[in-house]
Amino acid sequence: MRGVLFSMLLVGGSLLATAGAACAEESFLYQPAFCIDHALRGPAEAYLPQPGDILLRLDRSIFWRVTHYMALAFDPNGSAIVFARPDGSLAILEAGPNDTQWVGTLDLLPHLREYEAVGRVWIRKRKVPLTKEESCRLTAFALAQEGKRFALIRLAGQLTLLRSRGPIRTHFMGEPRGDRKSYFCSELVCESCVAAGLLERERTRPSATYPRDLFFGRSFNPVVDRMLDVNCGWYPPARWVSTPAGNCPCLKP
């Protein structure tokens, strides 16, 4: 029995390493910086993804740009998290991928390319790889959310006085809910991190956290700003590209 279990762990680890190597062939990160701009800060390095990495994106949609600014969410306008499927392949868990109304789990590299084609993509890499237990918890949570609804009504509520972003509501009502019926993107990322043990439940406010907060590790909301500790576990955002433009210190696409 122990021999079979050991063999399964070896196969799973081999598949994960193979998936990471395959992604690195057409997957690069420029040098990290807390800047939302078009600069590509060289040199570009091969990106070896790992569970727990956070994806952040900014597309060219006028609708999402306007509504995010109306809600004081600003840029970027999307976020997701990387997890390992049971077969060892890497995927992205996201609420509302490609403007759909569902939670999806998508193949990592093709999904990154889709967002690259319509805007800019950044990755916040984990500083310390997830333990086996953390990765398993993240996987279990991710698979349980697939097919749930995108929280469009609650997201629209961010434009009103009833939004969950207010400091008082954030403090008393913004705590993690765990397995809920619907999510918006950054809420799902935060709930995933809490479920995996990457963020502390007492210090995380998923329904009041926006993609911009995950990008900078800071927030205009004083409660989120005081409690969010994403900068402790993740490197600053690094611009992702499928093909590097060159290794000059700073290039424009």
Q: Biggest sheet, in brief? A: 8 strands, antiparallel
Order of helices and strands: HEEEHEEEHEHEHHEHHHHE
- End-to-end C-alpha gap: 54 Å
Morphology = globular
What percent of the residues sit in helical stretches (DSSP H or I)? Answer: 25-40%
Please count the beta strands (DSSP E, at least 2 residues each): 10
Q: In total, how many domains does the architecture comprise?
A: 1
Strand content: 15-25%
What does the model show?
With 253 residues, the protein is α+β, with helices and mostly antiparallel strands. It has one domain (2-241). The protein contains ten helices and ten strands. The strands form two sheets. It has an eight-stranded antiparallel β-sheet with strand order 2-1-10-7-3-4-5-6, with helices on both faces. A two-stranded parallel sheet has the order 8-9. A hairpin with a 5-residue loop joins strand 4 and strand 5. Helix 4 (132-145) runs antiparallel to helix 7. The termini are far apart. Residues 1-23 and 247-253 have low confidence and may be disordered.
Task: Give a quick set of tags describing it.
253 residues, two-stranded parallel sheet, disordered N terminus
Question: Helices, strands, pairings?
Answer:
Layout: H1 2-25, E1 28-29, E2 45-46, E3 54-59, H2 62-70, E4 78-84, E5 90-95, E6 103-107, H3 108-118, E7 119-124, H4 132-145, E8 149-150, H5 152-156, H6 167-173, E9 182-183, H7 185-196, H8 211-216, H9 222-227, H10 230-233, E10 238-241
Parallel strand pairs: 8-9
Antiparallel strand pairs: 1-2, 1-10, 3-4, 3-7, 4-5, 5-6, 7-10
Helix pairs in contact: 4-7
